[in-house]
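agent> Task received from the user: take the single chain below, predict its 3D structure, and emit structure tokens. No templates, no multimer pairing.
agent> Plan: (1) validate residues, (2) run structure prediction, (3) serialize to tokens, (4) report one or two observations.
agent> Step 1 OK, no nonstandard residues flagged.
tool_call: predict_structure(input=
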Amino acid sequence: MILLNAVIPSSNLAEFTRWLGHDEANGLSISWKPTRNLEAFFYRAMKEDWRGVLHYFERFQIDNVLPPNQNSSTRQNAIMLTDRYQRYLGPVLIFCSSRKDAEQIASGVMELFSSDTVSNEQLHIAASKIALVLGDSFPLVRMVSRGVAYHHASLPDPVKSLLEDLARKGQLKVLACTSTLAEGVNLNVRTVIISSPFAGGQRIDGARLRNLAGRAGRALKDTEGHVVVMHGDLQQLLQDPESGHVRSRFFEYVEEIQKTPGFNRDIDVIEAELLARVYKKQLSEQRIAAQTQFLLGSTLFSHQANHKQIASANSRMIEQAQTVFKMKPERDERLRVFAATGLSLDFCRKLDEAAARVAQGSDCRFRIGKSVN
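)
tool_result: status=success, residues=373
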């Protein structure tokens, strides 16, 4: 078996080979890429009258990429940079932290392109299709007809699919997006601009940043792709070859249960996994300790954690498994339904009670902690 990954750093290689294979499995790191990335940091130089500067790491620097402006916002800088890169190098993907930012940056770029002549039949056809879904007056219709668009989770699925198809074919000049598009979709862009260190309210880590950066450069078309970050923290992550170190999510689970015992009781992925294994008869009440230990041993966490952390996690899993056996439904059909939800037993019971009240035509609200839903 051969497993390939473009972003796992060398420090993770031994852990992954032991986890996915065995102690004698071999890991091979290859630095070659079909398209090399030129990575840069944009900033305003205070000592140079606040001119916009692009510093390409260990390569070169462009000192006057944007004119002096002490009061320009990150959004304004992103719009002007996008315009520069698109005009000189071609299609640009700009990653934004929120739907509002994606829409406003796309709108700002559109204004800069307003005097350009566009005669692209595919874009006009796509704009007409979007108008059928969203209406003629929707801003995205006019944008798409000129080769500019934004993409986020609030758009209807048919519209998102159409925009993704245009991006793959290289029809869009600029696409401003949130994480819904920045990860998992192959795009035809030469430049990626990352305007914010946040994604979905959380800071972008090294692994996600590397994934975003990997969108730059069109395979078999470009020899180089450009990646521009607009925040100092992202510059440091991008320059650190080990910043993409992949850490098991199980560490977060262990840390949270130490800080807040019983955290996330309503949607607990560990309890949900245990419940599924009870239903599949892969977990028995007589062998809880051995079977939970085996389950934990199959995780990446077991190859990264120390003995104390593993013991703490195993102890918690045993407690949860015991709770599952005490609370599980007696009827196999109900157990099957509960196990299929991916939710904790407590939350499944609340949903079950709410569904029963709906069937009886009564008030279906139920409490989760201190909130009422």
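agent> Step 4: summary for the user.
The CA atoms of residues 123 and 145 lie 5 Å apart.
agent> Done.
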